[in-house]
Design a protein that fits this description.
The complex is a heterodimer of chains A (469) and B (250).
Chain A: E1 7-8, H1 11-20, H2 22-25, H3 31-47, H4 63-66, E2 69-72, H5 82-85, E3 96-101, E4 104-106, E5 112-114, E6 120-123, H6 124-130, H7 132-138, H8 149-157, E7 162-166, E8 176-182, E9 188-198, E10 203-212, E11 218-228, E12 233-241, E13 246-256, E14 261-270, E15 273-282, E16 288-297, E17 302-311, E18 317-326, E19 331-340, E20 348-357, E21 363-372, E22 378-386, H9 390-398, H10 403-419, H11 425-439
Helix pairs in contact in A: 3-8, 6-7, 9-10, 10-11
Chain B: E1 3-12, E2 15-25, E3 30-34, H1 41-49, E4 55-63, E5 66-67, H2 73-78, E6 81-84, E7 91-95, H3 96-110, H4 118-131, E8 142-143, H5 149-163, E9 167-171, H6 179-192, E10 198-202, E11 216-221, E12 224-229, H7 232-240, H8 242-249
Parallel strand pairs in B: 3-10, 3-11, 6-9, 9-10
Antiparallel strand pairs in B: 1-2, 1-4, 4-5, 7-8, 11-12
The chains are: A alpha/beta (469), B alpha/beta (250).
Chain lengths: 469, 250
């Protein structure tokens, strides 16, 4: 494996690495992609790493994360046994598992498979070699990097990631599970890129997990572009369970054409510094998107959800509901920005952020924001941050329920507004278990995948039965 | 003696609300506590239940021979103290079924009993719902969420029926009820009355006492019980109004 020594990450070092590893980075590129990379690198060097003087980075400081020493990888890992790493044990959850190891696609078989129904999935680098026209048509079209230095950096460097293509009129009945495992001997800085394309009138369920398997520090800068053509339907789950020395900046760009329907869920259970940049553009009329978020943070963890919804076309509905429970000295940010353009009449946009602070030292900065240029629209936003309802606590305890159980009941009920929206029953059950474990302070980063928390040998048990809430 | 309150003083934010309450309640008795607004009726109920926003500055409460003031809120409940809230709290996301199952089983655990098997629990729910004429769909909803005033009060009595308390304190259970709901709530209470339990019924009006007939009536005024008597005292209050008390004790 070709590696670099560990060093502090700086723009200068990255410029040097880009220069030096050019042949490796450009190896699978078409000329057009190489041109985009070079342009992106220029943009990154012009912008530099985001600083706190930028409005959208005011409450999230990458300084500490960047001051660690990281190794950068420019070649795929070798000697990986995907079956060992990407074992998923949710009972009765039948998924097609796609594995990523430190951002690289790994498989024991071929790097790109085409299913009988025409669905293509596997390595993005391989897709670029095999289907250059298809990839070029969508690649970097939605993840604009002019004003976003980390997306620019990712565009310059990312060599691999996941590619999924669902042709027109194809319904994928089996959920696809993308598992990205971060694990290395040394601290690593990694950048991967995913591209998901849903054709007209197609559908896909996707479960996207980011996991750590050890306690080594890491910095992941991941960009995912998701294109949904007319009447495409997608159920999207993003689960994050990383160690406390992990920094993850995940930027997901959704583009919805006409009459598409998206349900997206961002569930952050663990991580040192987690930043979700969620960009959603309604590029066609009459589409519908729900974005739910749940974050459960403690210690000195930091979570930042930035949600930008662009109502560019009329008749679309967007609904955002982000909920967080913050313990100890954890900190959180919610920045919701809904833009309703002048022609986007009949827009229905709702935005909501609710937080529970369990300690005096936990804090959240919440800023829901509506920017409206059309006159016939329904828009609302709201934000609440407070403690657990003491009236409700007293009420529960007056019925004989102990303080810990009462607190658990209230926290779980609070989280359930998001967890309850998970459409795949087996997945919902598992996430419920994980949330319960997390709230009881028992969830660790797992030896196996993020969903490998209860095994027949080590079943999870709870003092109270909250399965029927 | 089930409950013995002796020279109880309690305050909130430094302001004294209860200024020396004495009250004895035996098993099998129903006591009504009446009085004008703002005289400490709800405070008395809250202090017995263990609400920590009130500071007990003096006096004691003995319950079943134990020092009640030393017990945690949940232990008071597990020992059989029930408070029917004047304003039941809405708890979105927690179903009544799960709430009650958790409560019943925690109380049972405290008493050294095994959890109630699900089938038995559901059967018990059905029985107790009938007692307060609750229709089955109510119990699939979140606790008190979106309930009407009458539904909330019926739900309090239903919970009381589930938990079978030894001392039930009903804090203005009649407020906001129409006559039909009042009758249903009162019937529920009457069906639960035994020689082994006691009720402390707090009310502003005599109306409820037509349905729940008390053994004793106490008048609370400015933090003290200023008058006690048989049930006829309630009629006298209704007739003369609280101004009578105010002018006599001011």
């Amino acid at each position: 494996m070709q590696t670099e020594t560990t060093e502090i990450i700086s723009a200068e070092r990255l410029a040097g690495l880009f220069e030096k590893n050019g042949p490796q980075i450009f190896k699978n590129d078409t000329p057009a992609i190489t041109a985009i990379r070079k342009q992106a690198m220029e943009t990154f060097l012009r912008l530099g790493f985001p600083k706190r003087n930028l409005e959208e980075w005011k409450n999230t400081d990458l300084k500490e994360s960047l001051e660690r020493e990281y190794e950068c990888l420019f070649s795929p890992p070798s000697n990986i046994d995907p079956q060992k790493i990407f074992h998923c044990n949710i009972p009765h959850l039948d998924t097609a598992v796609i594995g990523q190891f430190n951002g690289w696609f790994v498989s024991k078989d071929v790097p790109l498979i085409t299913l009988g129904n025409g669905i293509i999935m596997g390595s993005l680098a391989e897709a670029l070699k095999k289907y250059p026209d298809l990839v070029e048509k969508y690649y970097s079209k939605y993840a604009g990097f002019e004003n976003n230095s980390l997306t620019a950096l990712n565009t310059a460097f990312a060599q691999d990631g996941i590619f999924i293509y669902v042709p027109d009129n194809v319904q994928s009945h089996k959920p696809v599970q993308m598992i990205n495992v971060v694990q290395a001997e040394q601290s690593i800085f990694l950048q991967s890129r995913n591209l998901i394309i849903l054709g007209k009138n197609s559908s896909l369920s996707i479960v996207h997990c980011d996991d750590s398997y050890n306690h080594q520090a890491s910095f992941s800068n991941v960009v995912t572009e998701i294109f949904m053509d007319d009447q495409a339907v997608m159920d999207h789950y993003k689960l994050q369970n990383l160690n406390n020395d992990s920094t993850l900046v995940s930027s997901v760009y959704f583009n919805l054409e006409r009459s598409a329907k998206l349900d997206s869920h961002f569930i952050s259970l663990n991580g040192g510094l987690l930043r979700n940049n969620i960009f959603l553009c309604f590029n066609g009329a009459d589409s519908n998107a729900s974005i739910f978020g749940l974050y459960l943070m403690d210690r000195k963890q930091h979570i930042d959800n930035q949600v930008f919804v662009d109502h560019a076309k009329p008749g679309c509905t967007s609904k955002e509901m982000f909920k967080g429970i913050m313990d100890e000295q954890s900190s959180g940010v919610f920045n919701g920005h809904v833009l309703v353009r002048r022609d986007a009449q009949k827009t229905d946009a709702r935005q909501n952020n609710r937080n529970i602070l369990l300690t005096d030292t936990a804090r959240v900065n919440s800023k829901p924001f509506l920017e409206i240029y059309a006159d016939d629209v329904k828009c609302s936003h709201g934000s609440t941050t407070g403690q657990l309802d003491q009236e409700a606590m007293f009420y529960l305890m007056q019925r004989g329920i102990g303080e810990d159980s009462a607190r658990m009941l209230l926290m779980f009920a609070f989280a359930d507004e998001v967890v309850g929206k998970i459409a795949i029953p087996q997945l919902r059950q598992r996430i419920e278990d994980m949330v319960k474990k997390r709230l009881q302070g028992e969830l660790q980063i797992c030896e196996q995948c993020v969903l490998h928390c209860s095994t027949p040998e080590h079943p999870m048990e709870f003092d109270i039965d909250i399965s029927k809430i | 003696m089930l409950l013995s309150i002796n020279n109880l003083h309690a305050s909130i934010n430094g302001k004294e609300i209860l200024k020396g309450i004495d009250l004895d309640v035996n098993k099998g008795e129903v006591h009504a506590i009446m009085g004008p607004n703002g005289t400490g009726k709800s405070t008395l109920a809250s202090v017995i239940a263990g609400r920590d926003v009130f500071d007990v500055t003096k006096g004691e409460i003995t319950y079943n021979g134990k020092n009640l003031l030393k017990m945690a809120v949940e232990d008071r409940a597990r020992e059989g103290v029930f408070l029917g809230f004047q304003y039941p709290v809405e708890i979105p996301g927690v179903s009544i079924t799960n709430f009650m199952r958790t409560a019943v089983n925690e109380v049972r655990k405290y008493r050294g009993l095994d959890p109630l098997p699900a089938v038995q629990f559901l059967k018990m729910m059905d029985e107790r719902k009938k007692l307060v004429e609750i229709h089955s769909n109510l119990t699939n909803r979140s606790v008190n969420e979106g309930f009407s005033g009458g539904e909330k009060k019926k739900n309090e009595i239903f919970q009381m029926a589930m938990l079978e308390p030894t001392l039930a304190i009903l804090d203005e259970t009649d407020s906001g009820l129409d006559i039909d709901a009042l009758r249903i709530v009162a019937n529920g209470v009457n069906k639960l009355r035994t020689s082994e339990n006691a009720f402390l019924v707090i009310t502003h009006y005599q109306r409820l006492l037509d349905y729940i007939v008390p053994d004793f009536v106490h008048v609370l005024f400015e933090g003290r019980i200023v008058k006690s008597g048989p049930k006829e005292l309630a009629y006298e209050l209704e007739e003369k109004g609280y101004d009578w008390i105010k002018s006599e004790f001011k």
